[in-house]
Amino acid sequence: MKVIIVLQSYNGGGAEKVALTLAREWTKEGHDVSLAVLFPKGPYRNAVPSNVPVYEMEIRRERSALFELRGIFKDRSPDVVLSAFRATHIWAALASIWSRRPIVIFREANIFFPSKPKSLKGLITRHVQSLAYRRANKIIANSNDTKTSLKEILPFVERKIDVIPNPIDFD
Question: What is the mean pLDDT of the chain?
Answer without folding.
Answer: 90
